[in-house]
Amino acid sequence: MNKQLVKTGSNSVKIGISVLLMMAGMGVGSGNSRVLAQEGLEDFSHWAGLCRTFLEQGQYEEAVAACDAAIALNTNDPIVWSDRGDALFALTQYAEAVASYNQAIERDPNNSLLLTKRCSGAVELSQYEEAIASCDTALRMDNNWETQSPAVAWYHRGVALSRSGQIEEALTSYEWAIKINPNYSIALARRCAILSELGQGAEALTACDRALQVNQNWGTLNPAVAWANKARLLKSQRRYDEALAAYDRALGLEPNDAASWTEQGIILGILGRHPEAQLSFQWAVKINPQSSFTLLHQCANLNRLGSYEPAKAACEMALQEGDGNWGDLGPAYAWVQLANALTGLENYEESLAASNKAIGLNPQLADAWSNRSVPLWHLNREQEALAATERAIAVAPGSSLAWFNQGRILTGLGRYDEAVDAYNRALRGDANVGDRPTMADIWVNQSAVLYRLERYTEAVASADSALGMTPESAPALYNRALGLMALRRYGEAVTTYERAIQINAENADFWAGKGIALRFLEEYGDALAATQKALELNPTHSQALINQEIIMEEMNKPNPTSQN
């Protein structure tokens, strides 16, 4: 019984009966020459038996050729037509498979298993009404299931209903399949997916775990289906580490599953593990180079890595040569990410055009409005930029990205109190670690605004919050050091500058700040060394030049203890 459920394109075949007279030698593939080497052998039982043997051994092209030879000798045997259909199904030649099942059904019209096979083939051809009708007929006749049971018809009926968007009806079909066969793992795995989609997470998880525990009756599939469904469910519950572990199990069983590689990459991105995410997306693209969904997420991840040229190429590939399957995002999000890449490349006019395209496709996409504000800001069109963030907030009041961008614009306009409020709203929004803006990004920017408002203790606290999430954030360390300097906590400031220098020893501001803090501690020798390092990196650094002059004056003052 064929149970593999692989989406295909828009192939079509009518379910009606048509006569196919297959002659020996009309099979597919290069394996036929060996099968047909025995010319002149006109023994139907030989060819029919050889067809079944090849089918059971997974040699599907040879099986088709042998079946064709048998059918050339006897067109009236439904078993050979059925075996031929099974081999073609395994070769993903679904239209021909359904045609063969039709021939078998014409010769054995009361065979429920044949009707179910035709149902499964019609599902793969996206002919869902015909599939459901065929499975219903199989269940109504309830005759000749061979080694199977009505559970298989309920299962394939559920698949047809699910793919046609009839989710609750599909759930009922899966539950009938499981009632008949409680150890039907693939039906349990599909039930898990439906329950998850219906928001019944606890029941869904139980169904997936049951499928894996039973580990029987997967058809031509395997436990990777249940592991992948479980991973998606865990992701929806923000149990990201567990979801990654589940995807690892799924990919260990099905390493060519592009969808699982993509979903794994998305989770790694949410966790801020962007280099690892990129590896996952690369595997997915290698398997399915035209997946718009994968290319879009690869583009977004490359943007987060600052690799804007490759990001631009990935987004353009998704839009121009992709398969048009965008998942739940749609092409507008690809234009948003293309705009991000163009902004990173400082092509602000092109970025604005891409943002406008995204808005034209989906005016209710908050990210499109929010990201439109960025090139406008860079083009010094601040009021338009501010208006774009307001549109984004009107669409999605909980968008951290929209509030974050508004905070940046308000800061640039000198409206610091409003900027603090905007950053506070961003912190209460939908920001995730790993997604831009991260919580750490928001805390860093908020600390800078609080510093400008001379709210130094709060500025240090905000920087500390950023460091709690990303301890290696040099901007957070720098802002913290500035706040500590303003609070005259010079020793802590020196320590903080040193941490920043460990991350980026080529930043003149860090060395200059350390030199100033050491001067206030009257450690003039070390202060001079730090200041000179800053000037080595940036000879025109104004604060370092001033500090060097003050330090030299202090060092040249006579020491009172040495005077008589």
Describe what this molecule looks like in 3D:
With 564 residues, the chain is mainly α. It has a domain at 488-557: Alpha Horseshoe (Serine Threonine Protein Phosphatase 5, Tetratricopeptide repeat), CATH 1.25.40.10. The chain contains 30 helices and no strands. Helix 28 runs antiparallel to helix 29 (524-537). It comes from Oscillatoria acuminata PCC 6304. This is TPR repeat-containing protein.
* SSE-based structural type: mainly alpha
Q: What is the CATH superfamily classification of the domain at 488-557?
A: Tetratricopeptide repeat domain
How far is it from the N-terminal to the C-terminal residue, by CA?
Answer: 108 Å
> Low-confidence spans: pLDDT under 50, at least 5 residues?
1-37
The string of secondary-structure elements, in order, is: HHHHHHHHHHHHHHHHHHHHHHHHHHHHHH
- Cα shape: elongated
CATH architecture type of the domain at 488-557: Alpha Horseshoe
Q: Kindly provide the name of the CATH class of the domain at 488-557.
A: Mainly Alpha
Task: Report the major sheet.
Answer: none
Pfam families: TPR_1 (PF00515), TPR_12 (PF13424), TPR_16 (PF13432), TPR_8 (PF13181)
Protein name: TPR repeat-containing protein
InterPro entries: TPR-like_helical_dom_sf, TPR_rpt, Ycf3
Organism: Oscillatoria acuminata PCC 6304
